[in-house]
Input
Amino acid sequence: MATYLPPEEMIADFAAGATPPAVSLLMAAHLTQAPESRARVRAYEEAGGVMLRDEAPEAVSEDGFDAVLAMIDSDAPEPATADPVPEAPEPCPIPRIVLDQIGLGFDEIPWKFKLPGVSAYDIDIDADVDQKVTLLRARPSATVPQHTHKGTELTLIMQGVMLDNGVEYCAGDVAVNTEDDDHRPKILGDEICYCLIVQQGDLHFTGRFSRILNYIGE
Output
């Protein structure tokens, strides 16, 4: 169960449909592993529903009513069939909603080498928003060189354990780092760590070999 949840404001904005596409993807993936966050989103949605219910109703035309009924009929479930129950699929470390976004199966992701023990795949979501979305695959004991940011970085741990600024983040946890944080994440345990990262602005390496790393990253 997730321990480190997104900020309350982010949860409220997600419930209201006010988060940008990149953050919405991270939040939706987080909710698959975080019952407490799901409950909080549901509470905000219910509160919003009460506010809408208290507003004065508007008249609906007969044509509009018929259109709504047609939509309901089109969404009705198909009758159950006697098809055999398929075997349960192997557990996947990446939530289905993320795989659906990139349009690839887990085994089809074309990982690219970034650092020793670390590979990544960039997800193209919305070119109009200054946010980079990345899937990260890091092997046990892998370390990301010390760095800071030119904006906010959100990291969802989907599998494995990541140590960052003295905190151990596990599956479902969300780490939030800003331009004031200078950190050096490291993978703990013996399990490959899969992360979904939403990054605003570029990284700026600050530790050993930072000059070379920043030059390569330009």
The radius of gyration is 21 Å.
